[in-house]
């Protein structure tokens, strides 16, 4: 089954993207749709399917939206692939061009493929008795549980998926989950948080220690001051991320 592809508003709403021709923007979209799980795609095939022009492909390279891996076969890499799509490690299929990708872009960030978690019980049925395998199963289950809890809490506080991708690009899931627990503790204390995503971003960035239920009663003015600082910090961090993309 073909993996569903998504696109990031951070890219599609940027001036760098919107200033390009419509045909170049369309080509970029089709490259994402046809890319494999590592963000690699045979652009020549896409050009023939869309009747696109080489000029549009060259513009995308010039604007640093894609990197040419193999000029002869027009194999390209979508530079912001992980910002658009983060594939679950146990559902990922490695690119047939993985070696080429790492040769041209040795520092590229990739999702490392892991065994499917839903197939591990089948191994146990075949009398696979290994402490290493048992520990691996426990670790995988813990990672999956944490990710599910993060997704549920983001939905609870109406934080969209694009914001989640920004968090996951900068922070580990364990850190995000710890600060989500801090967030819930603060809310239970009755602290008013105007911008939850801003508060959470700063909490992760500063790696606040895990709070307890005991607390000192701060003034509303102090809470509002902290919220304003969090908002400014988030805006600053988002701007830095956008600059990295540009």
TrEMBL record:
It comes from the Bacteria. The keyword Coiled coil applies. Residues 215-244 form a coiled coil. Keywords: Coiled coil. This is DnaD domain-containing protein.
């Amino acid at each position: 089954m073909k993996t569903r592809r998504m696109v990031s508003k951070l890219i599609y709403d940027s001036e760098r993207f919107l200033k390009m021709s419509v045909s170049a923007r369309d080509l970029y979209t089709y490259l994402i749709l046809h890319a494999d799980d590592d963000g690699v795609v045979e652009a020549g095939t896409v050009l023939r399917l869309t009747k696109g022009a080489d000029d549009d492909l060259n513009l995308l390279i010039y604007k640093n939206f894609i990197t040419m891996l193999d000029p002869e076969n027009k194999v390209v890499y979508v530079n912001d692939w992980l910002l658009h799509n983060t594939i679950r490690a146990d559902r990922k299929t490695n690119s047939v061009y993985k070696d080429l990708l790492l040769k041209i872009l040795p520092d590229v960030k990739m999702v490392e493929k892991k065994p499917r978690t839903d197939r591990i019980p089948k191994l146990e049925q075949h009398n696979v008795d290994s402490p290493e395998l048992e520990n691996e199963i426990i670790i995988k289950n813990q990672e999956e549980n944490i990710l599910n809890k993060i997704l549920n809490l983001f939905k609870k506080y109406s934080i969209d998926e694009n914001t989640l991708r920004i968090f996951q690009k900068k922070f580990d899931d364990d850190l995000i989950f710890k600060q989500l627990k801090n967030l819930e503790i603060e809310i239970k204390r009755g602290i008013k948080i105007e911008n939850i995503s801003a508060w959470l971003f700063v909490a992760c960035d500063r790696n606040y220690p895990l709070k307890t239920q005991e607390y000192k009663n701060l003034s509303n003015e102090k809470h509002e001051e902290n919220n304003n600082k969090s908002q400014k910090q988030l805006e600053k961090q988002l701007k830095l991320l956008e600059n990295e993309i540009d």
